[in-house]
Amino acid sequence: MNSLITLSQTKNNLIKALRAIPPKTVQLLDENQSSFESIDLIPAVEEDIEQLNNFWEFLENYYHLKVIALVGMVNAGKSALGNYLLQREESEVFQEAPIRETSDAQEAKLDENTVIFDLPGLGSVLSDEDDEVVKGILNRANLLLIVLDCNYPIPKHLYEFLKSDQVIKNEALQKIIIVINKIDCLSDLPDHIQQKQIKKYIDFLYFGNKLMNFSGIDNLFDYEIPVVNFSVFQARKRDNYSQEKQLRQEINKALSSNSNDMLYRAGYQLYQLVGKYSPLATNYAVLREKQNYSYQEIETVLNSMNEGMQRLVGQEVENLASRIRRIRERCFNELNTYATTSAERFWQGEHFQRKKNSSSSCKDRYKKEISNEFINFTRNLQSSISFIAQNLLGRSFIVSLPDSESIRSALEKSIYEIWDAFDDYFFLDKERNAFDYSLKQSDQEMNKASDEISNWVSEFVQDFNNTLEVKCQELTLFQKYGFFKEQADSLEQFFEEFMSIDLVQSILSNRSDSSH
Ligand SMILES: Nc1nc2c(ncn2[C@@H]2O[C@H](COP(=O)(O)OP(=O)(O)OP(=O)(O)O)[C@@H](O)[C@H]2O)c(=O)[nH]1
Ligand SMILES: [Mg+2]
User: Fold this and answer.
1) How far is the CA of 229 from the centre of ligand 1 (A)?
2) 101: CATH
3) How many domains does the chain have?
4) Mutate to test the pocket of ligand 1, among 70, 74, 78 (most ligand atoms within 8 A of CB)
5) What are 255-308's pLDDT values in tens digits?
6) Which of 509, 510, 507, 500 is nearest to 9 (CA)?
7) Ligand 1 centroid – CA 81 distance (Å)
8) Is 278 a member of any domain?
9) Environment class of residue 412 by beta-carbon count within 10 Å: exposed (0-12), middle (13-18) or buried (19+)?
10) What is the 3-state secondary structure of 121-161?
11) Whether residue 512 has pLDDT greater than 90
12) Cα(470)–Cα(484) distance, rounded to whole angstroms?
């Protein structure tokens, strides 16, 4: 059996967890865990906490006692029955009157271990107030004596009370005895008519009446509720010994079962609340899982994009390098075909002039070719990357190109310097080392261009990644991820507090034991 101290600890931890529930959260709508509904749990949480605290206040005063509550409509004879059970005279403890008398909960000790609460009657003019007082005791009592007046069948109001959560339907937690009081009022009738009347009364109570759309109390509870016909008046006169005996026996029976002990009830209360809020913990787990899952999806998308990008850029750069190399080679070879003999250089005739012109137009052609080669490279890159990106991220993804003016000019200069080498040597008749010097210059320009190309490529990749980052925020996938993350984050504190409650732990370990 749980001690009050451990139970109170569990209760405090539970309240701490409940207080960590965020103002707005989402609730799973289906088993596939694919749709959510936004909910505000705070009002319900506040109510549960208040009820729990009220229960505990009661518990601290009464946990070592059994509590009997007298419940019924106004004037049914609750106070009279209470006085009788206490073996006191009329109105000696609880005031009796033919009008609404009891307006507050009154208590009196029946014996060392038992206390009786006389409650206000239900259904008076002041019913709202009275109902609240009754509700306050109802779900804490071990035994409810439902007092009915045999002159009136069970009213709807009382039935609704019995039906509500306030009254526990589980025999192990709370017992009910129905006392049909004032049967002395039937004593003028012949015996068999009396019996018939009472039977009719009980049948209606139990099985209801279809035409009146009242289904009776029979299937509200998980046990059969004992009914005792009674008359406080007769009992006072010691007129009907068998009734008295029956009532005392039923009361003793109900109270002697130790199961509806107050601490057990407190444990059960906690157990129920844990059950009520554990779907929220499940929600948390599902949200986190979904968050992780969409993160993985995002990673897959980004990785495949990155890989595609790397591969493409690598290939294109390699192609560009070999094309440029070939252009320079072809340029060199072609210029070589315009080499002049020393006689031609000396004479500078028609031959010489034609070769000089061809050499000069060769330079212009290759300058254009090498420059176009680079422009083509950038355009190819742009369109292939756009193609990949747009497939994944939609049409509006635009890949921009960094400026390449100086690269093209270096490439053109590298061609110019090759031409210059030939020009110096074969047309201006300079020394051989002028030729070598210009070729060296050409290589230097080429190196400069290739350095700039790698800078250009990394700038291009950087730009691309920046655009990617911005664009991704708009993606449904990212928005989904953001949603799950935000929701899971907001439930995290609750989840941690909730999962650390000893009761939750033990429920979980029992569950996993029984599933093995
Ligand atoms: N005939 C008859 N009258 C009874 C019996 N028991 C109580 N009464 C009368 O019924 C009236 C109401 O009794 P109470 O005990 O005050 O009834 P109650 O249910 O406590 O009423 P409230 O406190 O106002 O809700 C009183 O006048 C009692 O004398 C009974 O067994 N037979
Ligand atoms: Mg009363």
Assistant:
1) 15
2) 3.40.50.300
3) 2
4) 78
5) 887 656 788 888 988 999 999 999 999 999 999 999 999 999 888 888 888 888
6) 500
7) 8
8) no
9) buried
10) CECCCCHHHHHHHHHHHHCCCCEEEEEEECCCCCCHHHHHH
11) no
12) 20
* Average pLDDT, integer, range 445-450: 97
Ligand nearest, relative to CA of residue 78: 1
**Residue 177: beta bridge partners?**
145
Q: Which amino acid is at 445?
A: E
Residue 127 confidence (pLDDT) above 80 = no
Q: Are residues 293 and 246 in the same domain?
A: no
The reply to whether 203 falls in a domain is yes
Q: Whose CA is nearest to atom 2 of ligand 1?
A: 182
Q: Is residue 503 part of a domain?
A: no
Domain that residue 460 falls in: 283-481
The verdict on residue 369 lying in a domain is yes
Structure-token match 């057990």, residue found = 264
Residues 342 and 222 grouped into a single domain: no
pLDDT one-digit tens code per residue, 44-70: 999 999 999 999 999 888 888 999 999
Ligand 2 center–CA 119 separation, angstroms = 7
Tokens of 79: 């106070």
Asked whether the predicted pLDDT for residue 143 surpasses 80, the reply is: yes
